[in-house]
Amino acid sequence: MLLCGCMLGPAYVPPAPPLAEQWKGADGEAVTRETGDYRDWWTVFRDPALNSLIVQGYDNNTDLASAGARVLEARARRALATADLFPQDHAARGDLTFTDPSAQSSTAQPDGIRGTRRDFSIGYEALWELDLWGKYRRAIEAADAELAASIASYDDVLVSLLGEVAAEYVRYRTLQTRLMVARRNLDIQQQSFEIADVRFRGGAVTELDAAQAASLLESTRALIPSLEAQLVISEDALCVLLGLPPTSLPELHTGPAEIPSVPDAVPVGVPAELLRRRPDVREAERRLAAQSERIGIALTEYMPSLSLRGEIGLSADNLGDLFKGSALDAFGGPQFRWRILDFARIVNEVRIQDARFQALISDYEGQVLRAQREVENAIANYLGARAQAHALERSIGAAQRAVDLALIQYREGAADYTRVLDTQQFLVEAHDRYVQIRGTEAGSLVSLFRALGGGWEIRAGRDFLSDAAKAQMRTRTRWGSMLENDDEP
Fold first, then answer.
1. Which end of the chain has fewer CB atoms within 10 angstroms, the N or the C?
2. DSSP-derived secondary structure letter, 167
3. pTM of the full predicted structure?
């Protein structure tokens, strides 16, 4: 009993990855260093259509369902590892053997059933290797860590899904707004063309003014089919994220076609919070923990193994004698095994596991560094887009005023059409840039929330697979209660 308490191998201690103390970009009013609640981060946009699409994506996305099935696979692997604490090799058996008592050599063949002896036997045999050095307990702990890693992988897919749905929705709304602006500018340029054409027909100006007005008008008109095609592509991308074939999504065609507005301030906390909130970081750490247990498993091969072997059964020459007391046959005893002449191989097996552990340490540290870079980049992109949006908003106001003044002067003959053309062209470009940068601003905020690892908390209390998927699995295999959510961490 004392020996069964021994466990070989290193005690796992999570490494201390390189972490910055603060986010260098979070030093203003727009991005603060306060800790926020990112569970339902998409609600900061105050957009009911986006909220509805997020729910549909969570319920129906195929990649997320695949990740959920891998969690169930990890649960089954953990149960398999736990079973090794009990007799590992046990089975019932039944035999019917024909032998020829008169055979003098191994080449003699029985002459049919006649003249042969029939041996009947049934029984049960088992082999149980005692876990003296923690081999199987280490395997269970490794399976626990792998299960936690698979759950973190599921969370990572969920975080990516939420970010992709929100980013594609922002892109769609941006394209819608660009299309609306293009059509509005097309109307303005149509009016300018008509003015230039009337003045040309009246002999007040040359045909050049009308030709320039027509050129700008058709250039803007050519932008519209491209935007309409991109809208179709964006909607199809959203359908795939929602687990739907390409179709028309009602959420995109009802209500105002506006780019989601961003909040005045976004809390980002401190870098250390990524260790528990970013699913990919947690997954890397749990893979590392599982590998630490495998070092201990490899070390147990240095030590002898002790097994208990037992067999009980009934054996008789005639079927009628099989259940008599004299037919009872039993055997039991210990079995000793030690790879005493195989130490060189064992040494290298341990080295392999230790090298993998060291590699995973570097992978984990690299994952933490990449996570910090993603947050810093997202903060920089968000702040840059926000500043650009404010500047372009002021630029549009000035450009609109310039177009109005240029048209008045052109009607009065105080300016040629080149000035009108230049001001209108600048207004079209400024409007389009402003809409695009507003979309970039909202998209950068989505990227920031995704980099912070927010959103996976919504799975609390939910199963990893839908009821329909679980029903399919139950028709194929006996799963018992393993398909239900056991409040995994």
1. N
2. H
3. 0.85
